[in-house]
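Notes from hallway chat w/ T.B., transcribed later so I don't forget. T.B. wanted the structure written out for a chain they're using in a teaching module, and asked if we could keep both sequence and structure tokens in one place. Agreed to drop them here.
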Amino acid sequence: MSYYRNFPWCFFLATMYLAAFTVPQKVTFSQTNQDILIIQGVIQSQIKAMARDDWGEAFQYASVEIKRSLGNSGSFKKMVLAKYNIVYRPRVVSFKNTELFHGSPAQGVYMVGSNGKSAMVIYFMIKDENNEWRINGVQLFPAKKLDT
């Protein structure tokens, strides 16, 4: 009879043990290497299109939500040049880790802009209705200047 009295307590401890030691503390990116290469290719293609001033092509790499929000490639160009100028003709592009962020891939890209300023640029990716990777947003994290 005492066994059944302690059962809830033992069940609680077993559950806590399993939660602490079997649930990963950090969510890892679960896409395939092929997905990562495709994501990087989409980002690189958009950067190359902007470098050629082909804003129509560059706009095609944006998600449906971004396209709906901006409306056309002219508005896209104005936004990029005003808020995300580093992605327009960067001197350096170096792909970093791809992580999962709220269930979607986020690709880190270190960039040095044409003005010499550097930043970590995070591209948030999403698949469209045709199962193609599209850019669903970008966030800049300016690099801190090193003391010399």
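Follow-up for T.B.: The radius of gyration is 22 Å. Might be a good example for the class.
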